[in-house]
Amino acid sequence: MAPKLGVTPDYWDEACRHLGKRDRVMKKLIPQFGEARLQNKGDAFTTLARSIVGQQISVKAAQSVWERFAALVGGPSHKLAPGAVLAHEVAGLREAGLSVRKAEYLRDLASHFEAGSVHVRQWAQMDDEAIIEELVAIRGIGRWTAEMFLIFHLMRPNVLPLDDIGLLKGISVNYFSGEPVSRAEAREVGENWAPYRSVATWYLWRSLDPLPVEY
């Protein structure tokens, strides 16, 4: 089962203590954000649909298109039904301001959920890589999107999204005085955060943008 909406991971406080002991940067960074925590929002299908809508456009534009898309398929924006998306052809979905490709991706996502080829009920027993493998089989979902889903929806504690620009920038600013950082260097820094690499990543995002990151 996925975590309930608005719930903070039960490991968060323990993760903060662990990171503070293991890492000098985290020891200084974590207290700056007080009681702020990661929170689960939206169901699995809606979270993935929203990530597709938001690809390669600004946050503001993504929000506008998302609201039009949710209104078009007739559901609250935090919980859309796959069947409601499949009721619209690509041309119909484009009326929400979607590109042809994104409309196709959203229909493919809905098809996977309707057909049961994503095993939502088994995810709690599956490891991170098995879930990523299942998700990247859907058009429009790459490894980065799958990793964001693991962090923000399934609240997996130990994800290190090395394709994420914000993570690399956060490591650069906080650990390397702003010098560019390679994936290998980022991986090495992240080894010190295990088994709570998702939590450390979240605090690095916050160090760049104090507003909570949401997907």
UniProtKB/TrEMBL annotation:
It holds the Pfam family HhH-GPD. One of its GO terms (biological process) is DNA alkylation repair. GO terms for molecular function: alkylated DNA binding; DNA-3-methyladenine glycosylase activity; DNA-7-methylguanine glycosylase activity. Residues 53-209 form the HhH-GPD domain. It catalyses: Hydrolysis of alkylated DNA, releasing 3-methyladenine, 3-methylguanine, 7-methylguanine and 7-methyladenine. GO terms for cellular component: cytoplasm; protein-DNA complex. It comes from the Bacteria. Keywords: DNA damage, DNA repair, Glycosidase, Hydrolase. It is an enzyme of class 3 (hydrolase). Its EC number is 3.2.2.21. The keyword Cytoplasm does not apply. CDD domains: ENDO3c (cd00056). Belongs to the alkylbase DNA glycosidase AlkA family. This is DNA-3-methyladenine glycosylase II. It comes from Inhella inkyongensis.
